[in-house]
Amino acid sequence: MSTPAEDPAPEALAAEDKKLVTLARSTRARTRAAEGAAVRDADGRTYAAATVDLPSLQVSALGVCVAMAVASGATGLEAAVVLTDADAVTARDLDALRDLAGSGVPVHRGDAKGALAGTTRT
Length: 122
What we know:
This protein is 32% helix and 30% strand. The protein contains 3 helices and 8 strands.
């Protein structure tokens, strides 16, 4: 599946989405990982994670967030944030989000400092 087009960064995020940016930023900074991510599930719970890059296990930060949400019994997601140096959210990450959340979920992408560059929807 191809990656959807990314919209420009929103002028202002809702408070709940700003919290996701803060969680993703602090997780990435604390772990010094390639990416930090955070998601909010349909019940309002948040999950934050960093990229896992071990010799025997590699999982993106969004992949870890989705796994944590599933393991916690989440039945859907409302929003996601990934802070990365990449130019776009990967198709694989969007597929994982879509598997749990369906289509139309906003995925905000930003840099290590939390400055948003754009938003994609699953």
